[in-house]
Amino acid sequence: MDGSGHGIETLAALTARDAGMVGCRQCTRVWPIGTEVCGLCGSSLESRDRTSLQRVFAWWLVGLLFYIPANLYPMLITRTMGRESDATIVGGVIELAQYGAWGVAFIVFFASVVIPVGKFIAIAYLAMVVRRPHGHKPRNLLHLFELVEWIGRWSMIDVFVVAILVALVQFNLIATINPGIAAVSFALSVVFTMLSAMSFDSRRIWDEIEIISEESSK
Amino acid sequence: MTPSDNILCCPVCDALHEVGEVPDGIRLRCIRCHTVLAVGQPEAIIRIVVLATTALILMSIVVFYPFLELRNGVFTSRASVFQTVMSFSEGVMAPLSIAVAFFVIILPVARLSAIVWALGPLSFDRPPLPGAKTMLRLAETVKPWAMAEIFMVGVAVALVKLADLATLSMGPAFWSFAAIVFITALQDTQMSKYSVWTALDMASKR
């Protein structure tokens, strides 16, 4: 049962900032503007996170730097009967496809290539767009942001796959699997891009829109 | 307009709402961005606590019982989640081992325990334990970093990769881990920031 606006008295789209208040993002209570710590839950309060975009770009850049070695170096080092073979992220996907496991190859490709690359583009786009008045529908930008925030964690799949394979396949002479340096840099890249997405202050998506709608209604 | 207990601010878009009693079975959504703000569920707190406790008990099975078993002719290898986590523990990979331990075991356990600590007494009509607010905040902070469900998908991918190398079978830990993923997802649908904090606030004022 979903009822948007049902049983709720709407105050147009008045924001806490316009009303001279600051809202707590943890417990949703409001306090007079200038309050620093939420009286209910003890979180620190800020009407708009001023350093948000700087942090977004800082984490974004570090994440991108780690994503490069993650693709160049081997993720898995497999030793079978004395022969050693390396597999990078993309190499692993190709190998899966050669087995005929198309579905799984697609999942890994999606999680380790499409999601990270898409995330870099999406975060940069969001952070650029909200800096000045924009013609985008805020709902669309929010959907993009929520998608990025939700999907980012799923990139970790490949790191966990490596961990499981390494733990299971230790048959000394016959076959052993060891992790490559790319596993570490990929994990770090995912963590940093998650931090980048978390630093983004979603309330800013609406701020510039309000300026535009005020101007157009004049 | 002045701040008061029944004014609610959307954490996503900053829009203000005036909220009275939330009717049963209704989800209140933000008028501007449609984020779910409050869930009208009188038993929500009890459900959250029960589900979190169940998941915690299952977690103890997960950590030490065999998770996957691999057989290749004469060779057999078993791995528990604990071993999986320790697989990077040598040399330069050690930090990654710690990180995997955090994502898969420590943070999910910490989050579940924090929820039980903060909301457990409320479901028995008792005053909250000291530090309940800190614990509830912790549970929310940790949420994106608890990746048990992603680990499960990782297991599925690993199974396919090993399919022609050896025969695989799942141990008891595998099934309880699958149950935890399901239970945690169910529990998250019952949690809304406004409702949970209101319940905690009312309990501590009594």
User: How far do the termini of chain A sit from each other?
Assistant: 39 Å
The CATH topology annotation of the largest domain in chain A reads as Butyryl-CoA Dehydrogenase, subunit A, domain 3
Number of domains of chain B: 2
* Main beta-sheet annotation of chain B: 3 strands, antiparallel
Helix tally of chain B equals: 7
What proportion of the residues of chain B form beta strands (DSSP E)? Answer: 15-25%
Please estimate the helix content of chain B: 40-55%
Strand order of the largest sheet of chain A: 5-4-7-6
Query: How far apart, in Å, are the first and last alpha carbons of chain B?
Result: 27 Å
The biggest beta sheet of chain A is recorded as: 4 strands, antiparallel
Q: Would you tell me the overall average pLDDT of chain B?
A: 82
Uncertain segments of chain B of ≥5 residues (pLDDT<50)?
A: none
Structural class label of chain B: alpha+beta
| Largest interface: chains, residues each | A-B, 73 and 77 residues
**CATH class call of the largest domain in chain A:** Mainly Alpha
Per CATH, which architecture of the largest domain in chain A?
A: Up-down Bundle
Specify Rg of chain A, calculated over alpha carbons.
Answer: 23 Å
Q: What's the total count of β strands of chain B?
A: 7
Organism (chain B): Jannaschia helgolandensis
Pfam families (chain B): PqiA
Keywords (chain B): Membrane, Transmembrane, Transmembrane helix
Transmembrane segments (chain B): 44-68, 96-124, 145-163, 169-186
